[in-house]
Each structure stands twice: as structure tokens, then as C-alpha cells.
Amino acid sequence: MIRRPLAAAALALCGVGAVACGGAEVSGTGDSAPAASPRLGRPAATQEQADASGATAPTTRTASSETEALPLTGKTVVIDPGHNGGNFRHTKEINRLVDISNQKKACDTTGTSTNDGYTEAAFTWDVSNKLAKLLKAQGAKVRLTRTSSTPWGPCINERAAVGNKAHADAAISIHGDGAAGNLRGFHIIMPKKIGGPVDRVVKDSARLGKDVRDAFHDGTGLPYSTYIGKDALNYRSDLGGLNLSTVPKIFIECGNMRNAKDAARFKDPAFRATMAEALADGLENYLTSAR
Predict the structure, then answer these.
(1) Which of 108, 155, 225, 277 has its CB 3.0 to 4.6 Å from that of 94, i.e. a possible disulfide?
(2) What is the pLDDT of residues 78-110, one digit of tens each?
(3) Rounded CA gap, 84 and 51, in Å?
């Protein structure tokens, strides 16, 4: 895995994983210092630095080291920035029901926010774009489900279709939850078999979810959710973005935006960059591991 330093500070609603959507299992602990991540660690010394320090180093670089393919060359990743800041202006459009294979649900929702108004849509947009840059730097082809000029939505079925059409090797939908303020932590949402399009990628989606869970926990130090899922893993059959996916796909609730500790992290640009780094590590681990 390529090493590179973490950049400095870069660059109501209903969260999709609200308490009613899952159990009340407690499996998290408090914050801990992020573990050393290959992407967050200090970069390897250059030839010039090694010479200056007197360290023993090869005197020449091999041609193969300079032409070696990037680790994600040939891989396609679709990133879905949850919700849209313009949704509240288009209530008629986002409340339209769409078919998600086993039921009908609203086209989209407005998302949640921190108690002082930092919106989920703004958070997901920032982290998604940071993540896209990191993955592209590793050689991946990356597509987002919406652009800066998308006025609302797109609908959840259309978001799934973007990944399907791209034949993505992995897809991830990024969110922040809106649970009660005394609850905190992140969790991963993965699909269940429903007798629908997602069935054949349920197993791979679970593996993707675990890889991202591990990297996100190690890279950010954020605790597992204290209120939903087991060890930050939650399986659902009621999300259109998962039900309609024919490629391995997960959702991540990066924390609870209504919790003061989690909210402080969401609002910190440098920590959002750390989140993106951790997500990139998890996706790279999944995409480069043996199947």
C-alpha cells in the first residue's frame, strides 16, 4: 500500500440508521488514538533524504519501481454522497414513492444535521470528494452519484443504478446518523438477501463492510455504535440503495450528528480528511485482497 502523509485541513429530519431501524446493543468504547495507518503514516524517505542522513540506500532506482501500476488500476468505485442540500426545496419530488424491490419508499430524504446546523448533505459531499481524490490517486476510476449542480436527489433507485451501470467493483454510500443525542459511534450497513437484485452480491458486500469497518475504526479512533448493530455491523433489507444494487455495496453512518462528541468531529475539516483516508484504506484493502 502506498504511503503518503495526511493532508492538513482540507480542502430534521431522519438519518438512515435511526434508532427505530435497529437494535439497542452496546458494543463500543470511548475514543482512542487512531492506530497507525499506512496511508496516514510518514512517507518513505526519498533517495536524497537517505543520502543526507547517511543511511544505507540503493544508489539507483530500478525501472520497475517507477513503472509499477498503482494498486487500484483497473478498479471502479462509485461513491454516493448521501442526501442533497437542495432536497428541502423539492419536497414534492423527494417524497415521490419509488420501487426498491421489496417495497416502495420515498425517492430521497433531507438528511439530518448537527444541533447547530451543519448538514448531513454538506458533510457527505465533502468526505465523498476527498475520498474520490484519494482513490483516483491510487489508480481507481471513480464516479459520484451526484454533482455540485444536481438540484435535488437523485432518487435512491437512481443512486443504485449509477453503480450498476458502471459495473463498479465496490460502491459506498456515505452518511451521518440522526439518533438521540446520548448515543454515539459509527456503523456499517450491509444488505440482506431479499429475493431481488442484491442477492448475488450480499456475501461480497459483507466482506466489503468488514474491511471498511476495520479501517475506519483503526484510522479514526471513533468508537463502534453504542445503539445499533453488533460490532458496528448492521444488516438491513429496507434501503433502496442496497436492495437494488447488483455490485458490492455498503452504507456507512460515520457517527451520530446529534451527539456532541461525534458532531465536533464531523465539523472539523481535518478530521473529515482523516475519515476519507480511513475509508480509502478500507476500500483498497477490499479491492486488493484475494477473493
Answers:
(1) 108
(2) 999 999 999 999 999 999 999 999 999 999 999
(3) 51
